[in-house]
Design goal:
Blueprint: H1 19-30, H2 36-45, E1 55-60, E2 63-67, H3 85-97, E3 101-103, E4 126-129, E5 134-139, E6 142-146, E7 148-150, E8 161-163, H4 170-174
């Protein structure tokens, strides 16, 4: 009996409407037999297409990390500590459309190992949350989207993760934040 080599194995299920749906479909097709590192490697081998300028990087604890188009960091940070008003308006519209709440927590760094002589930068990123957890983290260098999370009936069950409903146009909407 011959076994196909991993390089020629087709891991891609039937075409889905979005990158996030494709990741969910592949995750469902392999079941719980892979840890996050193994699943990330399998998804990379599946050569997922990018969508709206975002590309797959990894999956961990139900959260997909995506690459973003190159950003001018100045367009993400105004002279004050908050985001520029135009980006705030876009993020608020996305949050409202997808029934999420918006916050702008500061970007923190564990710099105690390598302290710098410069004061900490007061930069922020956007976090869109449902009632229980962060669903989207929009950072100028990456985008994180939670695909599996606490469902109302499982939030008190350890590791009780269920697929979260993700609108097929979420990435397209989020791409507006990354327009330069």
């Amino acid at each position: 009996m011959s076994t196909p080599s991993p390089a020629t194995t087709n891991l891609t299920p039937k075409p889905c409407a979005s990158l996030l749906d494709m990741i969910k479909a592949i995750r469902a097709s392999v079941g719980d037999g892979l840890n996050d590192d193994e699943l990330t490697r399998l998804l990379r081998q599946a050569t997922l297409l990018s969508e709206a300028g975002f590309g797959f990087l990894s999956i961990s604890n139900g959260v997909v990390t995506l690459s973003v188009p190159h950003q001018d960091l100045e367009s993400w940070h105004s002279e004050q500590t908050r985001m520029p008003p135009e980006k705030e308006r876009i993020a608020q519209a996305i949050a409202e459309k997808h029934r999420l709440s918006l916050s702008e927590p500061p970007i923190t760094s564990s710099s105690f190992l390598f302290p710098s002589g410069e004061p900490a930068s007061p930069h922020h990123n956007f976090v869109l949350s449902n009632r229980w957890e962060a669903v989207v983290v929009a950072h100028p260098r990456y985008l994180k989207v939670r695909l599996f999370g606490s469902a109302p009936g499982s939030r008190y069950v350890p590791d009780g993760k269920a697929p979260l409903p993700v609108a097929p146009d979420l990435l397209q909407d989020l791409s507006a934040l990354y327009q330069t």
